[in-house]
Write a structure and sequence with these properties.
The protein is mostly helical. 75% of the residues lie in helices and 0% in strands.
């Protein structure tokens, strides 16, 4: 399969969105993060960026899973199951353990030192937190991807030769009704799963309330590759669903605004079979489907090429995902000593965090052994 530059460029874009998402939380928007500056955004600006962060979170990681699944098949078929698993475990398992055991704990330690909330040594801090509360932190995506890929390899090796699920589906390009059925199933399973695993609850960093979109999008990535739909899905179809997702995004903004005014109402959106939780699940489902389809089509049309800078960013994007929290926290803390308006600090933190993440990872990857892994 020839290199699809637009998928590379889309993943670079998504990587930058993830960085900006964590900068936003670090400056007081909704969400959890290891360090939140005292100089938080307030008022309408805080509400706007909370809404934008929530919209981004509704599609970005799901789209990562879609692209990962799409690119898994040619790699698996070229290498074979054994070599594929070996290569992927080196590339995924080592960074996962590094983040869990060292990086995330070190970033938290640095933040606690800055807040004067710890006096223990770095070594004792890391050991204690690994024993008391092991956590995947931002590397939850890597753990989920390991599980998804291992399950698919088992299916590909032992089940698909006799029973191919993709053959149950028509080869015809999906129509609006097909997308509607996917969206309806997507919404139903999301709503049900959130009754079992409410939003905000997590297990070692895995927020299971959001896993239905990840599973659906990973499965869709496999199906789209098998049917060769990615380059044939009509722009008109993706645009229609994008307009629906924009309407949903506007409604999502009203939810965020309402919750900032009445935080006690949040429970209704988190769990329970009621119109609030159903509306939130449907809204996020439509955002995921609509934004994902639009961005795939948009990048295919306008960004299906590469340049020197983009090629370097492509090489470093995985490392950026791994190391960006340290950069974001470091930049946020460093800017606290700068005497400028907090809104200027926020926008400066966005730019510096994105640029420095790619630069620092490029330096780290100049180490030969590291480059083989990330």
């Amino acid at each position: 399969m020839k290199r699809l530059h637009y998928l590379d460029n889309l993943m670079i874009f998504l990587s930058v969105l993830v960085i900006l998402h964590h900068v936003c939380i670090g400056y007081g928007t909704m969400g959890g993060w290891c360090y939140v500056t005292p100089e938080k955004l307030t008022g309408p600006v805080q509400i706007i960026f909370s809404a934008l962060s929530g919209i981004e979170a509704s599609f970005s990681m799901s789209l990562f899973f879609f692209i990962s699944a799409f690119l898994t098949i040619p790699s698996l078929e070229k290498k074979g199951a054994g070599k594929f698993i070996k290569v992927r475990l080196i590339r995924l398992l080592i960074p996962l353990l590094f983040v869990m055991i060292i990086l995330s704990q070190s970033v938290s330690y640095f933040a606690d030192l800055h807040n004067k909330s710890t006096t223990v040594s770095w070594f004792n801090y890391v050991i204690k937190h690994n024993l008391d509360s092991p956590n995947t932190s931002h590397a939850w995506f890597i753990l989920a991807l390991i599980v998804f890929e291992l399950l698919y390899v088992v299916y590909w090796r032992y089940i698909r030769p006799d029973y191919s699920i993709s053959k149950l589906f028509s080869n015809s390009v999906p129509r609006h009704f097909d997308i509607f059925l996917v969206t309806l199933s997507f919404f139903f399973f999301t709503l049900v799963s959130r009754q079992l695993y409410p939003l905000g609850k997590n297990f070692i960093g895995l927020e299971l309330a959001n896993f239905v979109p990840y599973v659906f999008m990973y499965a869709l990535g496999i199906l789209v590759y098998r049917k060769q739909w990615l380059d044939t899905l009509p722009g008109k179809v993706s645009k229609t669903w994008f307009w629906l997702s924009l309407i949903s995004a506007v409604y999502f903004c009203t939810i965020i605004y309402a919750l900032t005014k009445n935080p006690s109402e949040a429970e209704k959106y988190i769990v329970g079979i009621n119109w609030e939780s159903a509306a939130l699940s449907l809204t996020q489902t439509l955002i995921c489907i609509g934004f994902s389809g639009f961005l795939l089509n948009f990048f295919r049309i306008f960004f299906d090429s590469t340049r020197y800078v983009l090629s370097k960013m492509r090489e470093n994007r995985y490392g950026v995902y791994i190391f960006h929290p340290a950069v974001v926290v470091g930049v946020t803390i460093a800017l606290e000593s700068v005497s400028i308006n907090k809104y200027y600090k926020f926008f400066s933190a966005c730019i510096l965090s994105a640029v420095l993440s790619f630069v620092i990872v490029a330096i780290i990857r100049s180490i030969p052994l590291v480059k083989q892994i990330i």
